[in-house]
């Protein structure tokens, strides 16, 4: 992509009401912009990052043997009445009437929809287990939308649902999901902790929250540095000692980046989702559900990966892998830059080429730091005299020269 054609306008100044680092840099870099309170537009740069995060999540969930579906945003009132959540879920549903005067809701979660699908199709123990997931819009009627993408009213979530014949099978899969979540966060440049958490209005007998430690977080978690046990303060309360090893617990501020629930038979009982065992007797299907909000994950990545100049995107989710910059508008430099740009494209390397002639060197470097692409390449008359390219990694301060004929080898090592 040529930066002269990129639909993005970086900003020097933004509203003083924007406080979170992720909100500030994502707006200044023109990744996102607010439409109404708690609702955001993803612009080209933001969309590229979003799709990369989505791909990481999809790969890890598919590796568990899950199958992907897409369920409706508009949800049937009758299903929500079956689980007694039409008037009781918190935050409350977005409800409205269609032109036929029928009440509908915008889906904040999809337990009812999933169980309705399953109860029509599962008859025997031979149909179990299986796992369904989607990556789809959700709507939460939040009282207070804050921190940009950290708390919104419309967002995209990966929600995975698992269906099992017995507790042992559910526990086994629940633990596999935990491991997959840790892989997701690692690939996204986050170090997450897993803590016991409240089941809230989703329900179930047990839940775990994944949290990234950050001063911008709204969550408080208790962590044992000795055995690794953790709990949200909603569960741990004022406990000072670890429930497992009796070591002292440390209270940390964190951002929730995922939540998994051992639902058991809560929804299958309410909605009559059963299967026939080998002995012919009917039994309720056991369930688990597992969620990750993509925009919040994106914001958290920025909260953790930034400096005073802007974003530092982890390699796997960056909008581009390389930011190629020219700092002199002279024929020799342009020719070298064009050749390198085309060579990188042939190698399927995602590159943003700053070919803008109406920007100073300083402005180009400021934009580069703000946007946060992992590797910056600079071509100038000075570097060409040494048959070299100037290379700087966004997360490092040092700059080095690499011979043009050795650049392919350098690229493969990254």
Rounded mean pLDDT is 95
Q: Based on DSSP secondary structure assignment, what is the total number of beta strands?
A: 23
CATH class of the largest domain: Alpha Beta
Q: Name the CATH architecture of the largest domain.
A: 2-Layer Sandwich
Q: Which stretches are low in confidence, meaning pLDDT under 50 for 5 or more residues running?
A: none
Total domain count: 2
Largest sheet: 9 strands, mixed
Q: Which class of secondary structure composition applies to the elements? A: alpha+beta
Helix content estimate:
25-40%
CATH H level of the largest domain: which superfamily? Bira Bifunctional Protein, Domain 2
Rg on CA atoms, Å: 25 Å
- Beta-strand share of residues: 25-35%
